[in-house]
């Protein structure tokens, strides 16, 4: 990647190339190959997890990358500290996704402090993964560059919808001037289209494209009698 423009993501599909711990595909080389395949399919950006994955995809794929670092399995675990965020930026992510909820962060910094420190240390943009309308408004006030609906249904503030939380998405798009990216349980092209109709700047799809175990399970359940 050379110069990066956020506008290059507008109205497009961002493919999340992640594998869960313990899975056969949990390998940076595999995720880089998945990202390269996503490029061929028309993705405008990649979302990836883990320093090794972010670094290798940055080397292989000439698209902007949203990078994150999952540490832990509960509470604030998506790029939970400033140290995590800086490491992701240094690995080559043009956008660093961090937990953008109003919950307490493990390093004791506020979201605003984290964003300010990252902006001072790196040219990377900051994406706040939020779980509610109030999260999104607070994250925008804290100075983030992009809002994502990633955590809707996972923090206890919102019910887990069967598909993307279009209500939160539409309200944030209505109330904010920042780009709002739809992410979370976008499982079909129709749902992705509905996100754009609701005002999404771009749409992230992961499981439905890059998680064979889940996709296989959908089909296996459908044919089982």
TrEMBL record:
<dbReference type="Pfam" id="PF04131">
    <property type="entry name" value="NanE"/>
</dbReference>
<keyword id="KW-0119">Carbohydrate metabolism</keyword>
<comment type="function">
    <text>Converts N-acetylmannosamine-6-phosphate (ManNAc-6-P) to N-acetylglucosamine-6-phosphate (GlcNAc-6-P).</text>
</comment>
<comment type="pathway">
    <text>Amino-sugar metabolism; N-acetylneuraminate degradation; D-fructose 6-phosphate from N-acetylneuraminate: step 3/5.</text>
</comment>
<dbReference type="InterPro" id="IPR007260">
    <property type="entry name" value="NanE"/>
</dbReference>
<dbReference type="InterPro" id="IPR011060">
    <property type="entry name" value="RibuloseP-bd_barrel"/>
</dbReference>
<keyword id="KW-0413">Isomerase</keyword>
<dbReference type="InterPro" id="IPR013785">
    <property type="entry name" value="Aldolase_TIM"/>
</dbReference>
<protein>
    <recommendedName>
        <fullName>Putative N-acetylmannosamine-6-phosphate 2-epimerase</fullName>
        <ecNumber>5.1.3.9</ecNumber>
    </recommendedName>
</protein>
<comment type="similarity">
    <text>Belongs to the NanE family.</text>
</comment>
């Amino acid at each position: 990647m050379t110069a990066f423009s956020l506008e290059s993501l507008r109205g497009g599909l961002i493919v999340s190339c992640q594998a869960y711990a313990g899975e056969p595909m949990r390998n940076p080389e595999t995720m880089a190959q998945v990202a390269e395949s996503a490029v061929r399919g028309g993705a405008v950006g990649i979302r990836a997890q883990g320093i090794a994955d972010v670094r290798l995809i940055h080397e292989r794929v000439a698209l902007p990358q949203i990078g994150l670092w999952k540490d832990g399995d509960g509470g604030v675990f998506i790029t939970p500290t400033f140290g995590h965020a800086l490491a992701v930026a240094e690995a080559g992510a043009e956008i660093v996704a961090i937990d953008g909820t109003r919950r307490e962060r493990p390093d004791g910094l506020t979201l605003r402090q984290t964003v300010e420190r990252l902006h001072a240390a790196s040219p990377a943009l900051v994406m706040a993964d939020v779980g509610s309308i109030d999260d999104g408004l607070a994250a925008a006030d804290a100075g983030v560059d992009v809002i994502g609906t990633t955590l809707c249904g996972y923090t206890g503030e919102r019910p887990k919808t069967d598909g993307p939380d279009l209500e939160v998405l539409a309200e944030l798009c209505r109330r904010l001037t920042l780009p709002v990216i739809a992410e979370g349980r976008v499982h079909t092209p129709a749902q992705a289209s509905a996100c754009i109709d609701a005002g999404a700047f771009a749409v992230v799809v992961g499981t439905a494209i890059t998680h064979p175990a889940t996709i296989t399970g959908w089909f296996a359940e459908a044919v089982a009698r």
